[in-house]
Design goal:
240 residues; alpha+beta; two-stranded antiparallel ribbon; 7 strands
């Protein structure tokens, strides 16, 4: 086999490998997004559909209309029902009747030793995350983590409050000495991470959006956002 033929064969294999990797980069995000969406819809349906009377189940209605042997897997009805139910609960909770029911129920839960801790924590978390006037996780930043000299991307949660703010040194009380709670997410699995308290003077605020910062964390530093919105990837040969 000639040397020229060997080079052509290697060039062809390298081209096929590059094309295959390019295809993976396009296909994998699409497939995973569709799979996660389909799975999430099915999970919500599995919780909501059992509550719906059997005669109103989507599969029952399909069989009644098209025949008993017809089977069409329908997903998303539970999601729609959940959205409608949540809106109704929110509308009732804003009224006098809702408050008159919720407040006694919360007082009852507050007397239960273990349940009150779980409910109180979850209620405070949900109120903070879903508050329309809150500013949690609206800024991305850099913080010295896990040691001085190395930096990690973090998300500003809230200024430290209560005992945390009272026990940590706050200097002269200026804005730079304010203690901020920062969530440092782990790569690949952003919901997990570390909650750290950092003086504001040690926090470097970033101009990128929290969405771009999350993409940077999830890609473990492979995808950098650009000002024009297009992702900036590392060159194939790595760091120069």
């Amino acid at each position: 086999m000639s040397e020229d033929h060997t080079h052509r064969k290697k060039g062809l294999m390298a081209s096929l490998r590059s094309t295959f990797l390019t295809g993976l980069a396009v296909v994998i995000p699409i497939v995973l997004t569709l799979w996660l969406t389909w799975t999430a819809i099915g999970w919500i349906d599995s919780w909501v559909l059992p509550v719906i009377p059997y005669s109103y189940q989507p599969e029952t209605l399909v069989k009644d209309y098209f025949g008993p042997d017809t089977f069409v897997p329908i997903r998303g009805v539970g999601v729609i029902g959940f959205l409608i139910f949540t809106v109704l609960v929110g509308w009732i909770a804003k009224g006098v009747i809702g408050r008159s029911v919720i407040q006694p129920a919360e007082r009852l839960v507050g007397r239960m030793p273990i349940i009150r801790s779980i409910y109180g924590g979850l209620k405070q978390f949900s109120e903070t995350v879903f508050s329309q006037s809150g500013t949690s996780f609206e800024r991305a930043c850099l913080v010295p983590f896990p040691q001085a000299g190395s930096w990690a991307i973090g998300f500003i949660s809230t200024p430290a409050k209560g005992e945390i703010a009272a026990k940590l040194p706050s200097g002269d009380g200026s804005a730079d000495d304010q203690i901020l709670s920062v969530f440092v997410a782990t790569g690949f699995v952003p919901p997990t991470g570390f909650l750290i308290y950092v003086p504001a003077r040690d926090v470097v605020m970033l101009d990128m959006t929290t969405e771009d910062a999350a993409k940077l964390v999830i890609s473990v530093g492979l995808v950098y956002p650009q000002k024009d919105g297009a992702p900036d990837r590392l060159p194939p040969d790595g760091i120069n």
